[in-house]
Each structure stands twice: as structure tokens, then as C-alpha cells.
Amino acid sequence: MSDDHVPEQQPIPEAHPGERAARRPRSTDPLELGFAPRKPVPWLAPFLLISTGIRTLLAMLFGAYLDKRELQNAFGDGIFRQAGPDGGLWLDYVADLGDGFDATYSVAYLLAQRELAVEGHRLPRAQTLVMGGDQVYPSASYAAYEDRCKGPYQAALPVAPPERPTLFAVPGNHDWYDGLTAFLRLFVRSRDRHFGGWGTGQSRSYFAVELPAGWWLLGLDDQSGSYLDDPQLTYFDEVARKLTPRSRVILAVPAPTWVKAADHPTAYDSIDYFIRTIIAPTGAQVRLLISGDLHHYARYTGPDRQLITCGGGGAYLYPTHKLPERLEVPPRDTLSRRASRTREYDLVARYPDKDRSRRYGWGIFARLPFRNPGFTTLLGTLHTLLMLAMAGVTANRVGTTEQRLLSVPLVIMLVVTLLSAAFFAKAPSAGGKRHARHWILGVGHGVAHVALAAAGTWAWLQLPLYDWPWPLPAVAAAVVYGPVIGLVSSQVVALYLLVAGAFGVNVNELFAGQGIEDSKSFLRMRIDPDGTLTVYPIAVDKVSHAWQLNPDQSPTASWLTPTTGLTPRLAEPPITLT
Fold first, then answer.
1. Integer Cα distance of 486 and 492 in angstroms
2. Region (Disordered) spans which residues (predicted)?
């Protein structure tokens, strides 16, 4: 193909603030803000678990039919260029951000400030912002994006400052739950190309940006880890024609598949294929792989590149104490016959640190029942039914039709309890390997609930309530026994999660059930005109939970400020790449 067909590098459209941004709010009322600040997602809420499971199943079964990436071949295919006035560039990276308002806005507020003073470093606001995936939770919809993502970022930076920063976004699995419809509406637009004070720069769900001094930023969309579509590969084939052996690449991907490949060997295959077939033939080097998806900060270092996970933009904290100390990338047991040569990477930094992460795990006992009242109610309901079934058999009093309807047959309840606990340990649809520990822990968890139900039944039969005329025993069980056993059984679940987490099982549920909003993180990077890349991993130990209207009424000032200051620090010393 001749050079005449190489896509030209496109200027970034300027951000034009809308009417809402121009009018500053007079209170924190949602009608004034233009969005409703949301509470953190209660991840163990029964209806949310069911709806998320259904969405995940639909995405697995019909993802190919909902895939809009093939249609993006008709979209623009420009390569964008970003550079600061001094020939260098400040670049921010944030991921997993659209959750509860306090955590999301705490990070957005710091990103939007004119300058951050962090441990002696003066870090000006970045000219380019990259959102690394999962811009909204629990599932993609335009209203959820407005309340959980765009609204908070609008409040943090209402209009574009003089440097007119630009935003690029990578879709994560939660962005894909509606087939990418809402994501494309927000980040890939032909008009109103602004997201708060940031101009939206991309023309597809993936992008290529030429940075100063031979650096490139490439953002991939692999549809929740499935594959890279042909139009995307064709687009990056054209991008690769601009790369040279002196080019250095920052690759932003939706998930840290280098970590997930330790349990799921094929997870890294699509990234390896991209590097091996698109970038490697040009002689360019991928010096930095960055991702979100796991809600913490972690850095692996190897002979040729850095692997950084930074998913601390707002979602619940994910632990770091179970991370592998060493990775083989790509894994030796991948099924790909043409995989790149395996290299070893060592875990050199994590935030929060290992001890603090482990201490967070013990908070499950206090946080589980109160952060997830619906889950506690579900446990109480199931245990009440199990107790009535056991009591009916023990007392041999299941006689009337009404009692039979409410006293579910004991065998059915036992089977449901044991299977539910086993599948909770490792759902059939979950990726990765199923080990013996999943079955042992899952069945053990189920047996613990059966034992609790037996003890509860014995205690209930000692009370005179069971001897009341029917249906008063069932009413009393729902009103008295249900709430008590719900709270007790939630502690059994908490103990199971803590024990299982020590064996690498249900680690996500151990922390999702707590909804920890603190220990957030993002990256601020600097590319100097001489080509030196410095990465500043910013950590936020405590997010703010109290906000007030900003007395500064200048157009670019954040609408809300924390009543007590946010204190960013470095998660580790700056990382320098040349």
C-alpha cells in the first residue's frame, strides 16, 4: 500500500462546555448538580448478583452478535497526536472509576487540580487523560454513566482549562454489558466532543496516539478478553507503518491478563498476538503495559518492560496479598503454538502493601452484613426455610397443606444449600481452573450452614413459639428467627470468605462484600522532550466523605471541595524508563 493511504494524524477537537457546565451549582442538590451522586454498589445484593450473572451469561452467549466493533470500520481511522507546549507531555491514567461518588470524585478531584504537590514533586495537571476500563458499575447504561462517571468528572473539571486536555478511554467488561452502546455515545462522538473539561479524542473504541520523543500510546479493545476483531487489527496495521525501531510503546489494555494467565493460561494470548504480529515486526518496543480491572496498584518488572495494574479509580479495593510474586509471561502452558518467548517478571511494588491488604480482609465480619443488607436478608430467609423443614421432620408435624407448602422438603433444602455453597466457591461460568480446593472449601461451607441450621432448629424447638397454632410458628420464625439467623449466618459466610481467601478462593468476594472505598490510586506520567518517561504512582489512603461548595467561582474550579483535605502520596518511588 502506498503512503497516500496512511491515515493522517488528526488534531484533537477542542472541548466546548455545555450549558450545564457554564452554570455553577448553588447547592449539592442533584437538581443543581445535574446528576445524582450514587452510593457504592452493594456487590452481594441478591438482585444485583442475579442481574450481573444474567448479563455475564448473555455476554458470553451473545457477545459476538452484540459486537459493534465490526461496524466501527465505517468510523474515522485517524492517528492522533499529543504534545505539550514544551515538547514534552503530562499524561494521566485512571481505571475502574464509576462506582460510589465519594471514592470516584476524590480521584477525579485530584486529577482535575491545576497542580499536585506529592512528596516534594510538583505535578501539573495532565494534558492527556486515559481511562483504562470499567468507567461505570455495575452495568453500562447512559443514566449510570451520567451519575457515576461523567457527572463526577464534570463537577471536578467543569470546563476546559487553557491547555485543553484530551480524554481517551478503553472499554472494560462492565462497559461491554450493553454491547458498547453507551460507551460509544459518550466517548466516540461526532459532535459535543467533551467530557466535562476534557475533549474526547478517539473515533473508535480503540485508539493510537503519537506522543513526544518517539513514544506511542495504543489502547486496545479485546471485548472482555475474547479476541481482537479484524477492523481493529487493520487499523493497527496502518498505525504500525508509522512505528520504527526507535519507537517506544505504552499499551493500555482492559485487564492485567499477565496476572490472570497464572490461573487461566490462555488469558494473555490476544495481547501476545498483538505484540508479536503488529508491533514486533516494526522493531518498536513495548516498554509499558498498563491496565485496570483489578482494583489496586501493582508493578511487575522484567527484562524488557514494566507491567502495571492500576485500577484504583473508585471501585472497591481488591487485595494485593495474594498476588503471585513471580510471573511467566506468556505462560509456558499456553495453548498458543506461536507464543512469544516466555520471560519472567517479578512483583516489585504493590499498594496497599501486603500486611495492610491482609488486615483489610479481617474487616469482612463487620462490613459484610451492613454493607449488604439484602444478602443478609437472603441468608435469613434461606435459613428460616431450612429450619422449618428440619423442624417439621424432627417434630413429625408436617400435616396440613399449608404447612407442607411453607415447610419445603428437607432433602431439597439440603441439596440447594450444598450446591449453592459449592458453586459459590467456583461458579461454572467462571474462568480459570477448578481445583480440588474449590470443591473442598465449597462443600465445607455448605456443611457449616447445615450444621448452623441444625443448631438453630434445636434452639427454636426449645421455645414455646413452635407449639403455637399454625400459621403463627411460621410468622414468628419470619419475624424473630429470620433476622437473628440472617446475622449469624452472615458471620459464617464471612468466616468462610476469610478462610477461603487464604487459599486463593473467593478472594474477589472477600473484598467485594466489604466495598472498601479507601486506598485509591492513579498514575501521573511525564514524557520529557529527550524521551525519558517518568511514572508517578499516586496513592490516596483515605477518600473524602464530606463535600462543600467551592468558594472559588472561576469557571475551571471544581464545583465541590473536600471539607478535610485529600492527601495524595507516592505508592512507590517514581519509575523512570528511557
1. 10
2. 1-31
